[in-house]
């Protein structure tokens, strides 16, 4: 039996240590995914906890049709998307730069570069961004990404390629040249 | 190994993230060298990957599972919820019936025949105050009634025609009046 399924069975039969093992195994991946959706450490921390809470609440409904990881990512994405819907403010460049130590010019330039990319990522449509995040950051396969997003592999491919294309266009418009 | 342009584009994230089989890696590298579009895509993906996720710290990692477990246990403690209460018909029906019962008991309790003294019988012993009536006064009233019986009958026929105490007294015989007098005197002695 798959390791994750074994832990789920153990938890469902009353072994709370199994829950701890599951959380420890996936906490960094869930946090990373949510952070890339929110760009805020505190929000990412809260939403990571909320994701695992939702996982536990719905664990009896987990039908084992997909892998636990795929199911977990789907929950994390829903938590992140619901949070984004309730939050409308934009993170400003100055805000993101706030807190930098003076003198470290290279660090500021580096941070600015990351901000451009983050902001560019925020400009692409939601499903395209999700396809990109899951494929690039999380390293999910096409079929896994399709399961997480609840669509076909063809749709994932289209969303992913459109995201890369759109990102290139945005960065060019902003005068940020990629280095092929 | 032969891979199409589209297949290679699909493999670009994997190329940057982790080890690929040597044969695939070589094919991919050869293709990227000659394909500007794939080079641009590779550059974009590598830029995206360069945006690191800040580490929230060991405290967060070490306490997350405990926090999740605590939250789960807290939610297991049954708490009163109006929503869940309303969706349970038996408790709702029981609560409504109990409310009606309480209202019924209270309203019945308050319906005691406690009438306003104003509407009480004005000649009731509870209402009339005889404390200022002396024994002489009672005797005088009785004698006057005996003497004036004929006069009252002739002078106030309309009063006597009604259903009043005067009418009852007016029709008493002399013996009855004497008996009434004796009774009133006895009551007076008893303090009534």
What's the quick description here?
The complex is a heterodimer of chains A (180) and B (192). Chain A contains nine helices and no strands.
Can you put this structure into words, describing what you see?
The complex is a heterodimer of chains A (180) and B (192). Chain A is mainly alpha-helical. In chain A, 74% of the residues lie in helices and 0% in strands. Chain A has nine helices and no strands. In chain A, α2 packs across α3 (41-57). The relative contact order of chain A is 0.10. Chain B is mostly helical. Chain B has helices at residues 5-17, 22-34, 36-50, 58-76, 82-86, 89-109, 135-147, 149-155, 157-161, 165-170, 174-190. The longest helix of chain B has 21 residues, at 89-109. The model of chain B has no long low-confidence stretch (mean pLDDT 77). At the A-B interface, α2, α3, α6, α7 and α9 of A face α1, α3 and α4 of B.
Uncertain parts of chain B: none
Order of SSEs of chain B: HHHHHHHHHHH
Regarding quaternary structure, what we see is heterodimer
Which strand-content bin applies to the residues of chain A?
A: under 5%
Q: Spell the H/E element sequence of chain A.
A: HHHHHHHHH
- Secondary-structure-based class of chain B equals mainly alpha
Q: How much is the radius of gyration of chain A in Å? A: 18 Å
| Average pLDDT of chain A | 81
Shape of chain A: globular
Helix count of chain A equals 9
Quick one: how many beta strands of chain A? Answer: 0
Shape of chain B: rod-shaped
Through-space gap between termini of chain B: 129 Å
**Could you tell me the number of beta strands of chain B?**
0
For the record, give the distance between the C-alpha atoms at the N and C termini of chain A, rounded to a whole number. Answer: 45 Å
Helical region count of chain B?
Answer: 11
- Label the structural class of chain A: mainly alpha
How would you characterize the largest beta sheet of chain B?
A: none
Residue ranges of chain A: pLDDT <50 for 5 or more in a row? 89-103
């Amino acid at each position: 039996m798959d390791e994750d399924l074994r832990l789920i069975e153990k938890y469902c039969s009353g072994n709370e240590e199994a829950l701890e093992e599951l959380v420890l195994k996936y906490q960094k991946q869930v946090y990373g995914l949510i952070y890339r959706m929110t760009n805020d450490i505190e929000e990412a921390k809260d939403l990571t906890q909320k994701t695992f809470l939702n996982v536990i609440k719905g664990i009896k409904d987990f039908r084992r049709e997909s892998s636990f990881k795929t199911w977990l990512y789907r929950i994390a994405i829903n938590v992140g998307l619901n949070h984004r819907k309730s939050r409308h403010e934009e993170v400003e460049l100055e805000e993101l730069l706030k807190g930098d130590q003076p003198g470290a010019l290279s660090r500021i330039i580096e941070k600015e570069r990351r901000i451009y990319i983050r902001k560019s990522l925020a400009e692409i449509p939601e499903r395209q961004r999700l396809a990109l995040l899951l494929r690039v950051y999380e390293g999910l396969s096409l079929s896994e990404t399709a399961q997480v997003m609840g669509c076909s592999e063809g749709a994932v491919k289209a969303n992913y390629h459109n995201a890369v294309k759109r990102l290139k266009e945005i960065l060019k418009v902003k005068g940020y040249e990629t280095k092929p | 190994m032969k891979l199409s342009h589209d297949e290679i584009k699909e493999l670009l994230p994997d190329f940057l993230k982790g080890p690929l089989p040597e044969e695939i890696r070589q094919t991919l590298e050869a293709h990227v060298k000659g394909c500007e579009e794939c080079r641009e895509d590779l550059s974009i993906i590598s830029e995206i990957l360069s945006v690191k996720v800040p580490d929230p710290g060991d405290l967060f990692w070490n306490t997350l599972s405990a926090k999740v477990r605590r939250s789960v246990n807290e939610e297991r403690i049954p708490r009163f919820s109006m929503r869940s209460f309303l969706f349970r018909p038996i408790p709702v029906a029981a609560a409504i019936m109990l409310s009606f019962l309480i209202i019924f008991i209270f309203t019945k309790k308050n319906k005691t025949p406690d009438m306003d003294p104003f509407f009480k019988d004005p000649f009731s012993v509870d209402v009339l105050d005889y404390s200022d009536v002396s024994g002489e006064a009672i005797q005088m009233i009785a004698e006057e009634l005996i003497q004036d019986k004929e006069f009252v009958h002739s002078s106030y026929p309309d009063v006597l025609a009604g259903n009043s105490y005067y009418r009852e007294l007016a029709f008493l015989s002399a013996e009855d009046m004497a008996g009434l007098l004796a009774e009133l005197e006895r009551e007076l002695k008893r303090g009534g």
